[in-house]
Each structure stands twice: as structure tokens, then as C-alpha cells.
Fold this protein.
Amino acid sequence: AQSVSQHNHHVILSEAASLELGCNYSYGGTVNLFWYVQYPGQHLQLLLKYFSGDPLVKGIKGFEAEFIKSKFSFNLRKPSVQWSDTAEYFCAVNAGGFKTIFGAGTRLFVKA
Amino acid sequence: NAGVTQTPKFQVLKTGQSMTLQCAQDMNHEYMSWYRQDPGMGLRLIHYSVGAGITDQGEVPNGYNVSRSTTEDFPLRLLSAAPSQTSVYFCASSPGVAYDWIEYFGAGTRLSVL
């Protein structure tokens, strides 16, 4: 069965610090990969996605993620975080068909 | 264009009560789903539908029923609420493979079962 593992449940950073959130998945075939974000009091929204092509994908608000097939990883990065990036971040994997599997989430708190 | 609309936003139930969480989308999406979000466990799929009249179980279907009589609506029914069903429930819709299986989420329903 597919599974998604997010390495950190809670991350605390100061503004301007760099961010990297880890995500690993278990599935040997072709996958579609997502990062969703949930800002406080808001619903989940898509941050970025990877389907094919360039393994480095760019999303909204300066976020990017790199797909490393050999490591089954899809880590999320941002060079300089802002207070407004405080949110919960979910990595998700779709192996074809409708079912998408979500990781447990990483709560990011950015200190102003 | 409202997207995915969920009602109610908050609900408190007593053990054994029944209720229906409503979900409607106005994007003409074929695919709809219900997730529950629990601390440390992320989102877990309860039930999903690939079109009107077609539903299937997800990862945690026990205690929940769904139906899909129209493309727009996908209600989730709790037949006899239990404290273990205290959670935040999200409904989502997706246009499917042609749009990369991206999901669009509602604002959520926070349910407490006492």
C-alpha cells in the first residue's frame, strides 16, 4: 500500500531562515506528487505539484520542491520564510486513479 | 463560482445521534471525496465518488455512509455518532486526470461527539 512520510511534525523558524520540509513516499511506479498548505483558519489549497518533466517544480509564494525518484522523495523548500508562511503543510501522492494519500502534515511556525 | 461549500461549519453531537454533513460543488467536477483530519494523522479518505451514482470506500469508511445522486452534491452521513468520530471533516472535488488530479477543498466541518 502507498504511504507518505513527513519527517517533521513541528518546525519553528525565524523570519528569513531557509526552509526544507522532508517528504518520502512508498510506491514503485509512476506517481503524481503534491504539496498542499493549510493557513490558520483556512482550508487546504494546492501549493505546487509534480507530474512529469523537470524534477524541480515551483509553486506559489516562492516555494519549490524537488522530486528525486531514486530516493522516493519530494522535499519542499523556500530560501527565506516569512511570518505569513506559518501554516500546516501536507505532502500527498497519487499513483493513478482518484485516491490521493496524504502525509501526517508538518506544522510550521515562523517567528517574526 | 463558490467552489466547494460545506455546511455546517461546527457541530456538537451526543453519542448515538445521527447527522448529515453537506457538501456541494459548482465546478462540475466528476470526482468528490470526504476526508477526516486528526492531529498527527493528516487527512484520511473516508469515502469517494467518481460520478453521480457511484461511490466507494476509502481508508476509514466505518460509521459513515455516502450517496451521490447529483454531480453537485455529496453528503456524508453519520448514522450513530461515536466520540471517535470527533474530527475535522473536509470535502473535496477534483476534475480528474485531465487536470492532474488536483483537489479543491471546502472550508471544513469541525465535529465534536460527546
Summary: The two ends of chain A are 41 Å apart (CA to CA). The interface with chain B takes residues 4, 6, 9, 32, 34, 36, 42-46, 49, 51, 90, 94, 98-105 of chain A (CB under 8 Å). The CA atoms of residues 33 and 93 of chain A lie 5 Å apart. The first strand of chain A starts at residue 3 and ends at 6.
